[in-house]
Structure formats: structure tokens, C-alpha cells
Amino acid sequence: MAVATQSLETQCINAIRFLAIDAVEKAKSGHPGLPMGAAPMAFVLWDQFMRFNPKNPQWFNRDRFVLSAGHGCMLQYALLHLTGYDSVKIEDIKNFRQWGATTPGHPENFETPGVEVTTGPLGQGICNGVGLAMAEAHLAARFNKPDCTLVDHYTYVILGDGCNMEGVSGEACSLAGHLGLGKLIALYDDNHISIDGSTDISFTEDVSKRFEAYGWHVLHVKDGNNDLDAIAKAIEAAKKVTDKPTMIKVTTTIGYGSPNMADTSGVHGAALGDAEIALTRESLGWEHAPFVIPDDVMARFRQAVEKGASAEAEWNQALATYRTKYAKEAALFERMLSGELPANWADALPTYAPGDKAIATRKTSEATLNALAPAVPELVGGSADLAKSNNTLMKISGDFQKGGYENRNLRFGVREHGMGAICNGIALHNSGLIPYCATFLVFADYMRAAIRLSALSEAGVLYVMTHDSIALGEDGPTHQPVETVASLRAIPNLYVIRPADGNETSGAYKVAIASRKTPTLMAFSRQNLPQLEGSSIDAVAKGAYVISDDAGADLILIGTGSEVSLCLDAAKKLRAEGKKVRVVSMPCWELFEAQDAAYKESVLPKAITKRLVVEAGIEMGWGKYYGADGDMISVSGFGASAPGGRIMQEFGYTVENVVARANAL
Amino acid sequence: MAVATQSLETQCINAIRFLAIDAVEKAKSGHPGLPMGAAPMAFVLWDQFMRFNPKNPQWFNRDRFVLSAGHGCMLQYALLHLTGYDSVKIEDIKNFRQWGATTPGHPENFETPGVEVTTGPLGQGICNGVGLAMAEAHLAARFNKPDCTLVDHYTYVILGDGCNMEGVSGEACSLAGHLGLGKLIALYDDNHISIDGSTDISFTEDVSKRFEAYGWHVLHVKDGNNDLDAIAKAIEAAKKVTDKPTMIKVTTTIGYGSPNMADTSGVHGAALGDAEIALTRESLGWEHAPFVIPDDVMARFRQAVEKGASAEAEWNQALATYRTKYAKEAALFERMLSGELPANWADALPTYAPGDKAIATRKTSEATLNALAPAVPELVGGSADLAKSNNTLMKISGDFQKGGYENRNLRFGVREHGMGAICNGIALHNSGLIPYCATFLVFADYMRAAIRLSALSEAGVLYVMTHDSIALGEDGPTHQPVETVASLRAIPNLYVIRPADGNETSGAYKVAIASRKTPTLMAFSRQNLPQLEGSSIDAVAKGAYVISDDAGADLILIGTGSEVSLCLDAAKKLRAEGKKVRVVSMPCWELFEAQDAAYKESVLPKAITKRLVVEAGIEMGWGKYYGADGDMISVSGFGASAPGGRIMQEFGYTVENVVARANAL
User: Name one GO cellular component term (chains A, B) (predicted).
Assistant: First the structure.
């Protein structure tokens, strides 16, 4: 097709395609197939529907766009560049996938303004989209007034076959259907090709019917390669259905335009090569050199700058009006957007004295959550169907449900992985909402890919994990974490905190709430734990501290969580034998490692080499704290099914054994 | 209802219910609700349909039963006891959830003969069921003859709302529909109650429609509490549809029979208490004391013993005939069932010499898999849509597909978690099949819950994980493992092996294939690696070994995988400077820890305290090997998107840096 006969729209679409083709070719690495096939839907969406301000990527009321099929990131970089985001210049596209570029191999919100969430691991993005839409629905219900709308945006997601095969997407989409999130619109790039070839070899289900079963509004664009009008009409129809999310299946051809590679898995994840690119230029009628965008094409895309500025200006006016009419709500709203926490919020944290009742930390967690609920109104969250076991309900609020989006208790169902990914979306809505989510600690395994993405994408999610050791008892080894805490400590940029009692629980939340770019995972006990002499809210932020000490101590007992009281009891006995003992509570490795050398030395002096660590978990990584002359009481295999007390005894978590092992040093 | 008017069937069902009620009450812990509601479907299934031999739980051709809703394990223990399994005596039921009992809090195949797979973590069991059905379909296609059927059993699964909410079940069920596994029959205990209350709060999708979308045959029994005939007819109908798996939605009442607690979440996971139990006895007309089973009820259940013996005898005859007519096939079949590997299978492992071409270990893995494919005919497996990147296709076989079940290449689609759980099912079919599965190493996170269950349930699955470090390059931090190897080393009973070259790859498979009760996870490189002087197939089984040494060495460089060659290159340079250096290749911690003290000392002598570990991953756990005077070149945060060579350089994985850090010791 000669370029002269092409509509400007087609040229715009080809501009996206060739930025992708040429950037991948220059990098000799990347995924051209999806951008080539999905460019038409993306263009229609960004050109006709998406509201955003390229010059202020964080404008609150923008529509959110998520490329769940993150490998096709050149699609997103092309759109960002063409519509005028400063984060992606043409040089950045030429530097695609190179050291230090803003155009990494998969979209990363922390590298590239304009990218909302980090995608690539398949299925995550659509779940993030559910979270973004939940955040919007919640804020709209809380802040909008009949005469003044502050919160009103859509969440658009492009997802592929891979996303739809991943179970995590099913979890979140089932919940999205249940919740009736009408402003979530997913475009399914139905190109029937995955890496191993045709989806015929493993994925022949009826995806549309499945989404209907979830309660979604489902549409189909049969020719997603050429029928721009059908794409636009489908998005319009989607917007009209306000009580259901919409899935638009858009049938496309992967690598559209490549004469020899279109509709094959060969075009999915590799550069096309010079010869095929030449043929593709010919076939698509694109006569421009790599990275050259004709003026009229650029002008069309750059309309977004003015449109965006005026959309934001209009919204700013609405905000000004809102501020006048609803000063209190406006103050809260603007404080939340600013990312500032309420003044003195931490004063709400419960405190405990040594005489107080022994309580499970999952219950002191409940008390803390409920104390924070009024003090930190941006806190929203819930459990994967274990609200009563994880103790995560905020009593001052009802359930976030269709018709009750203003409520703050989220009901995730038995969907741990989707829950984590949804919370990432809520956190990265960047409207100040602080999401928490909960399950049994051992089921962190189910949601680990989402936890990793919280850490990588700087989403300050709170993970409230209860039943944190073999001491949970009868449920047995399938439910007993032994390696779980260690495996979570392995994740960079994640605080893993195992509080010893009520004060440390408050301390854990104090860190977690304040920590907006590092997620926090808190491990709470099922069993009751005493309120400890010497425990401290503020010391938790230091990761480890001396909770009990003798002058001239030459032995350190180091415990975490439920084992701190055991260490303290053992210390008493050792002291009765004339020993001089220090007990260190070490709720969080990562925070301790962040302290200066002097503080670390003050807690764990090099000179005291007799050290016994007591933790009801595996030994891995503790060596650096107990050292060459130290020892640890740890669990070396899986747990067992029996009452918790019996298990702790059988596994050596007794005062007698701690004393014996300490004396053996 | 007075007992006199009750049918024997109803009494049998009540016997199951009260064993569950009374065992949970005695333990003051457990889940009575599901057994009370699902007892009718379970009774009909075990009484009229299931073929099994209580006196030989491992009889090969038995129907497989999986309680995917594993918390309802008292249902399964009651059935095992009543039908005459020796593993569950009445004393064992009285010891439910106690230390050392065969009746742990969730069903565990390694504790209780008659339990096929370990369930409890929701959604896993139905996926295991898909694996069991795939194993049956595969063996039937390979071994059955027109005149002689050896392999012919059903796989029955009871799953609940929780299982159906978990994404992992969707993954496996979509694949089961695609594969048309006609002998998989799932009974969905539709009791519309989960722990947090009615499923109305989070799970309102149309499950039947979703399974239809997957390509399943779907039926509905509206009154699963009373209509035994409808249950039986549904199972009959399910058996008649041979080209699709069947999902029978059986609508039931959780805690059926409890006047005050039925149909509430209160009966899900707690003992009913004496008063409510008395009322339930009255309401169900059960006049027997706890743990007392009337003779006629017992006699009815125990018919299973004779039926089972005669079913097995009949099958033994078929096997005898088969042996005569098809001696070669019978020999293979019986060898597989025995769990013996073929004689001299390890001779097929490829060997490499230092002069040989540098190849990525994912490619030496491919060569090994293909060398083993003919030598180990029980090897079956595949990738989660990354066959060409993970290099996991066996060239001598086609794809396991509907109409081609005899083939050994499995096509899992982008379904890592379901893949792992399916492989657990294949392994625990206990027919000698050795399953492997593959994805990028970082996506071990997606399937971690299944990997943990491989380890816990002693399923000797091979995990073939490629792209094992930041060196994979451009795909960036979402795809780059940094903490992944460490987090996997944390799992008990799992060999994590990171081979350095072709010989070590063969060595890894040599361990993995032979290791039928410990799963093995192998981490392979994307990038080419040289064939190393001194590398050894057999030494891999020792976990670590001296690959290069100087007499009088006072410095040890310890590497794994791709960093071993770096250590060897650095050693050369250090030697040129006059240093005496030992290089240790340490592909597997767990195997090294299993060696005797003398061997360990011979590799890492205590006297040599200058030790530098080089691994492209986090430091966690390495301290015990490099010690107080040693050091490590590790990765402390997430990776980056750039060409792999550049990344390795930026992160300090260069000869210069290894030399400098070694000299600094």
C-alpha cells in the first residue's frame, strides 16, 4: 500500500509498529510481535479515549493504562514518546534495553514516568488493573459529591493469551466481575500465538465465555488489525456498561505486516532482521528511516499534550470548587494525594505493659489495625478468606462491595496471588491509599510473584501473615511455615518483621505504614504470647535491640517473634545458674542491617561470640549473626500435625533446651 | 428421623459424618463441616464406583481419589477406616491430629497409605488429579493393546469453593479440558460457604459455565444432601463421556445435620461442641456412641475388601496374559511399576572435554534430556510455553495431545503453578513415570507452592529452570533471579543444583533421575559457558568438589554455575601473581551437607579461612561457607535491563574484581 493512499490513522499505527520494530532490531533483543499486532487497538484507545497529561504523568484523574502483556513494552514506549512524555525521548527508544535507559526490557513504573505498574511476569498487569479500578471506585465513592466529581477515570488494560492462561488473572477477574467494576476495560489481544506456537497446542478454552461466567460484559472485535471503527465502538459500548467490567476480545495478527513472520511465534520475541524489516516496510507502506516520525503523524499524537493540559486544568477547577464547598474532604483528599501521613497518626498505636494479658500477635495486629483504622483513613485491605483467622477486619467499616465501594474492608476470596497483585495496583494508584492483605504465612508461597513485584516496583503494600510457625499446631506441615520467613527475607526491598508481642506489633505497623516504597511483611503468631518486659515500639525500626541485659554479659540469646519470650525465660534460668546473659529481640533483619556500625556493635558486640539464635524456622542466613562460635535452635525439615505446644516441645523449643544449648557453647 | 426407618445407605453416610464430628471434637481441632456435607457424594462414589483394594493401597489399576478440599480430611480417613485400610484404624481416628498419628490435619500421602497426594493448600488437589489422569491416559495409550487392557482407571476428585477460587485450579482445569481427559471426574462440593461466610461476599461467578468454557462436561446434582440416586446417575453419565473431563456440581449443605450450625462458616473449621453434637445426633438419628460403628454399616463398607481383592486378582490375570503376549512391553511396564530405573541408564549421559565448544547449560540440558529420552522411557515432561527457551523438547517424541496420549512432550501453556501441581500428580501416580517441567527460574515464584508440595510429599519431580541469573540480560529485573536460588535452597527435601557446564549438567540429571523421593530443581544458564577442565559428572552428587587446586593453597574460590569458570579464570591470574589457589565448584548445597565430615573437610579445610564465594545471586546463607575471614561477590538488590555481559560487568562479575576481592582477603 502506497503511503499516499494511507489515512493518517494508519500512518500513526505504523509509526508505533516501526518504533517497535526498529528499536528491537537496534537492540537485537525484544518483542516486536505484540506491538505490531496491538498497535491499532492501542492507537484508537490513546487517540480517542484515554485522558492523560503527558507533561504531568502523575495527574491524579488520568485514565490508567496497563500493558499486562509487558513483553510488548515497545508499544507503550512508542505511545509515551509519540504523545509527548518527557520520560521517553527518541534517544531513549534508540537505547531500548540498554544499561541506564528509561526503556527497560519490560515496563517498570520506577524507571519510566508514564508507566503505571511493572509488568512482564504474565497475568500481573490485569490484576494490577483490577486494583487500580478498585482504588478509583473506592475514592469516587468516598469523595465525589452529587455536585462535584473529583474521581472519575477508567482503567484500560491490554492483555494477551499468556495473561489469560495464568491463574492469577482468573482470580482477579473473577473478583472484578463480582465487584462489578464498570470502569475497568480490558482489551484482550487475541492473536492465538504464544511462544511455543499456536495456542491450539494448549489453550483452546472459550475465553469470552469464561469472562461471561465471571460476570463481565464481553465484546468481540473480529478484525483488530484493520477495523478501527469496530475497536472504537467496542470501547464506547464498554464505557456504557457501568455495572460490569468489560473484556473486549480483539482478534489480531501477531507481527502484522511482516510478510514472512506474521502469525508465527517467530515474531514474538526476536528482532525481525534487516531483510524482513525491509519487506515489512514495503508491505505496510512505511517509507521512513528508523526512528524517523513524519511531522503530521507526530502532530496528531502530540495533540495529547494540549488535550491533557486542558483536561488537567478543568479538573483543577473542579478541585478548586470542591475545596470551597467541601473543605474537610478536600483536605483529606489532598493530603492523601501528597503522600503525607496524617499528623500524629502513630499516637494511635496501642501500647502494652508487661503485666498485660498474653495475646496472640495476630490479635495485637487486629487491635493495631483497628486503632489505625480511624487514624489512617487511607488504610484499606482484607484477607484471602481468612479474615477471622488473620484478624484483619476493621470494625469501623463495612465491606467494599458493589453498591458499597466507600467501605474499606476488602474481601478477596481464596485468591492469595490475585490479592497481592491487586494490592500492588491499589498502592500504585498513587492516591495515598495504603493497602494491606492477609493470609496464613505459609501461603506467601502462593503469592510470592506478587510480593516480589511489590518490592521491585516500590509498592508499599502491608502483608499481614498469621500462623507464622510450626507452633500453629494441628493443621500440620502443609500449613506450617518453616522456610517461609527465610525465603521472604531473601527478597530485596522487603521488610520482613516478626514481632514478639503487642508493642513490637505496634512497632511493625509503625514501620509498615510509614514505608511507602518498601513493602512490609509481618509474621504474626497464632498462639498467645506474653507482653514482654523491655519490648519497645520504636526499637522495631532498628531491626534488633537489647531487650534484657546483664552487665558483663558474655552470652547473647537472639530471638524473634514467639521465641523472644522463650529466650527471656531461658535467660532467667541461666541467670539463676550465675550466668550473665543478654537477650536480643531481632524482629527485622533488613532494618537492623540499615543501622550504622556503632548501633550494630552496641547490640551484638563482636567481643561476645557465644550467641544462640532461637527461631522456629530454618537456619539459613542466621550464621552471620551467631557466628563461628555460636549456635541456633532451628527447624531442619517440615513440621508435623499435633497440638502446637507438643510440636514446640518435640522440636526443641523449650526453656530446658535453650538453657542446655546455651550452656554447651 | 428414627434410625429404624433409615436405609443402610443413610446410616453409612451418617457413620462417615460422626467419625468426622467425633474425631474433631476429641481433638478439639479440625474441620467437620465438609465431611458432614460431602459424605453422601463420597459414599456413593466409594460404594458404587470406586475400584480399589484396601489391603493393597498401591494396587496399580485402582481408581485414584483426591480430596482437593484437604481440610475435610476426616472424610477421607473415615472412608479409609470403614472400607478396611490397615493404615487408619479406629485408634488412629481417635488420635486425629495428634503427634505421630497416621491421621494428620491434612491428608499426607507419605504418612497414610491410601492417601494418593498431599492436599490442604487449596486448589492443589484438583491439579494433582489432572496429573493423575494424564498419567493414566499416557500409560493406557502406551501399554494397552486391543486385546489386553492393563491401564484403565478413573481419577475422582472432590473439590470445594476454595479450590475453585484459586487460580491454580483454573490453570490445570483449562488444560484438562484442552486435553479431553475423559477419565477425570471432579465432584464440586458446592456448599456456598467459605471461611469468611457466604461465598456471596466474594465468589459469585458461574462456576459451571466457566468449566464449560474450559471444554468440560458439566452436570449438576441439586440436592447433594439426600439425592443419592442423582449423584449415582451423574457419575454414570460422567463415565459415559469419554472425550471430556466431567465436573459434577453437587449442591450441599456444609455441616449438614447440625441444627444450629449447618450452612454457616462456624462449622467449617471448629469442633461443634458437646451440646450441638448431641442435637446433631438427634437430628440425624445416630444413636451410637463416638467411634462406634454398627455391624451392618461396617459390613457394608467392608465389602470393599472382597471386591477389591477380586478386582486386583482379575487385573493380575490380565497382566499375566499381557506378559505372555507382549513380553517386551510387560517387562517395561513392570520395571516401571517396581520403581527400578533401567540398567545402565546413566551411560547415556553426555560427557564433555575441556576443548569442547562453549554451550549454555540450558542447551547441555537439552542434550541430556534428549540423550535420556530413549534410555529412560519413563521420562515425560515439558515447559510452561517456553519449550524453545528452556530447551525441553524430546525430539524422539511428539506432543501429548488428545488422540496422541502416547507422546511424552507435555505442553503446559503459560501455567507454571498448574504445571508443578500436575507434575506432582504424575509423580505420585506411582507408576514409575518421571515428570519434568520447565520455566524461567524467576518464575519458580509462580509455582513455589507446588514445588514445596513436591518436597513435602516426596514427589521426585525434575524442575528444569533456565535463565538463571542477571546474566540473562535485556529482559531485566522482572525476569532476573537474584534471590530465587537462595529462596529455593530454603525448601527442605529439595535438591537445588546449579551446574557449571556440560558435565555438571549430566551430573545434575544423574542425581535428579535417581532421586525419586526428593525433587530436584536445576538452574541453567541462558548464556554460553565453557566446558571446564576438571568438571565431573559424578562429583555433582557430592554437592561440591575441588575442580582446580594448588599444593599448599591458602585461598579458596567457591563458585556455582556460570561463576565457576570466572573463578577458574581468576585463579589463573592469581597464580600468575604467585598465589596458591583452590577452586571449588559447589553445584548443590544440600548434597554437600549430606556428605561425611571427612569429605567436607577435604573440600573446604577449616585451616583455609581465606575464602571468596562468587555467585550471581544474593549472599544469604553463604556465610557458613566463606566464614568469618571470607567474602562474597553477590547481588544485593534487583537486576537491570541491558545486555548480559554489561550487567555482569556492572555487578562486579569480572576476573579483575574476583582477583581484587581475593587479594583483599
Answer: cytosol
**Partner B contacted by A165 (CB < 8 A):** yes
Q: Given phi > 0 = left and psi -120 to 50 = alpha, else beta, which region is B543? A: left
What are the DSSP calls for B193-248, one per residue? EETTEEGGGT--S-HHHHHHHTT-EEEEES-TTT-HHHHHHHHHHHHH--SS-EEE
Residue type, B463: Y
Mind giving me the DSSP string for B118-164? ---STTHHHHHHHHHHHHHHHHHHHH-BTTB------EEEEEEHHHH
- The secondary structure of chain B in percent helix, strand, coil, rounded to multiples of 5, reads 45, 15, 40
How far apart, in whole angstroms, are the C-alpha atoms of residue B182 and residue B242? 4
Separation between Cα atoms, residue A170 and residue A177, nearest integer Å? 10
Give yes or no for B607 touching A (CB within 8 A): no
Reported as a single tens digit per residue, the pLDDT across B318-376 is 999 999 999 999 999 999 999 999 999 999 999 999 989 999 999 999 999 999 999 99
For B304, the 3-state DSSP assignment is helix
Across B450-549, where does the E strand assignment appear?
A: 462-466, 495-497, 520-523, 528-529, 545-548
Asked if A357 reaches chain B (Cβ–Cβ under 8 Å), the answer is: no
A158, A126 in Cβ contact below 8 A? no
Measured CA to CA, the distance from residue B199 to residue A175 in angstroms comes to 11
Residue in the structure block whose three cell numbers are 509519540? A82
Residue-wise pLDDT for A200-253, tens only, equals 999 999 999 999 999 999 999 999 999 999 999 999 999 999 999 999 999 999
Residue A399: beta bridge partners?
A409
Catalytic residue among B116, B312, B416, B504: B416
* Phi, psi of A401, deg, nearest 5: -145, 165
Type of residue numbered B202:
S
Query: Is B566 known to sit in a ligand binding site?
Result: no
**Chain B, window 87-126: residues with a beta carbon less than 8 angstroms from a chain A beta carbon:** 97-101, 104-106, 108, 118-123
Does the structure show a pLDDT above 70 at A3?
no
Q: Do B203 and A413 touch (CB under 8 A)?
A: yes
Q: Which residues of B362-371 are buried (b: 16+ CB within 10 A; e: fewer)?
A: bbbbbbbbbb
Residues of B numbered 232-271 whose beta carbons fall under 8 angstroms of chain A's beta carbons: which are they?
A: none
Return d(Cα B514, Cα B379) in angstroms, integer. 12
pLDDT tops 80 at residue B114: yes
Query: Using 50, 70 and 90 to split pLDDT, how confident is the model at B5?
Result: confident
Q: What is the pLDDT of residue A654?
A: 98
Stated length of chain A: 665
* Contact residues, A window 414-453, toward B, CB-based 8 Å cutoff: 414-418, 442-443, 445-446, 448-449, 452-453
How far is residue A242 from each of residues A175, A216, A406, measured CA to CA in Å?
16, 11, 17
Q: What are the cell numbers at B480?
A: 532476573
pTM: 0.98
String of DSSP letters for A199-264: GGGT--S-HHHHHHHHT-EEEEES-TTT-HHHHHHHHHHHHH--SS-EEEEEE--TTTT-TTTTTS
Report the distance separating Cα A500 and Cα A518, nearest Å. Answer: 22
**What is the rounded average pLDDT of the residues B112-139?**
98
* Residue among A195, A475, A640 whose CB faces B385 most closely: A195
**Active-site option among A108, A136, A166, A416:** A416
Rounded to two decimals, the ipTM of the complex is 0.98
Query: pLDDT (tens digit, 9 = 90+) per residue, B581-639?
Result: 999 999 999 999 999 999 999 999 999 999 999 999 999 999 999 998 999 999 999 99
How far is residue A186's CA from residue A214's CA, in Å, rounded to a whole number?
14
Alpha-carbon span B253 to B193, nearest angstrom: 9
The pLDDT of residue B1: 45
